Amino acid sequence: MELIEIKTLQEAPAPVIRVGAVEFGEAEIARETPFHPAASLAEAQLQAARALVVRELLSQRAAELGLPPVVDAEGQENDEAMAVLLERELAVPEPDEAACRRFFETHRQRFSAPSRLRVRHILLAAAPDDPRARDAQYRLGQKLLRQLGEAPERFTELAQRYSACPSKGEGGELGWLGEGQTVAELDRALQHLPEGLHERPLASRYGWHIISIDERQEARPLPYEQVAERVRHSLREQATRRALRHYLLALEEAIGVEGLRLDGDADGSLMQ
């Protein structure tokens, strides 16, 4: 992989970064960069540099407090030691009932039961790079649909005879499916289908699917009492991120960092 010199990249970290008396140069940043995928190499290097700074700030603070090292001799993070440090150092307020209810009312959609479909299918297998097989299986699918149009009760029989999916043993029953629970191209189509037998085979990377939507349940709001713990967890997580950000920025100020500023991404660098 060809490395671009950091000093030539817009918004990239400086060639040398200091955290207290510890220095990081291009070599350390280059080793860390593959662990931070981003839209550009410059952004990946910047995220890597921030991660190194955060790790070193926490390491120096743990050493100052006489706590176990948060990074071992091989440079790997010690999650248990990190948890001990943060539990001691972070003051995270527990959300009260009033705050939880306000958050719930403002984010009702987040705490709704998602829509779901009860689906049966017959998979007519054909590889995406085999046009002859896909054409033959599509024509078979049209034939099966004509038969089902005349006798819908034959779906179980035809699934057991023709389907290449393990669900053939249950007559093609897939049960209740929520969004994202099947292959992406089929999932997108299912979200827009009405109840009943779909009029044509649907394509996926596995072949063609004869689809029957037996029941649809739309998304519906849930009462606060049913999601209270989820609401409390969401608020606690938000408060933890805020506390973590302020903590890291305070360490940056106290220990001293040259060549890079954490700014608003302090907590994000640790969460990665």
UniProtKB/TrEMBL annotation:
It catalyses: [protein]-peptidylproline (omega=180) = [protein]-peptidylproline (omega=0). Gene3D superfamilies: 3.10.50.40. It holds the Pfam family Rotamase. Residues 114-215 form the PpiC domain. It is an enzyme of class 5 (isomerase). GO terms for molecular function: isomerase activity. Keywords: Isomerase, Rotamase. It comes from the Bacteria. SUPFAM superfamilies: FKBP-like. The keyword Metal-binding does not apply. Signal peptide: none annotated. Its EC number is 5.2.1.8. InterPro entries: PPIase_dom_sf, PPIase_PpiC, PrsA_foldase. Belongs to the PpiC/parvulin rotamase family. This is peptidylprolyl isomerase.
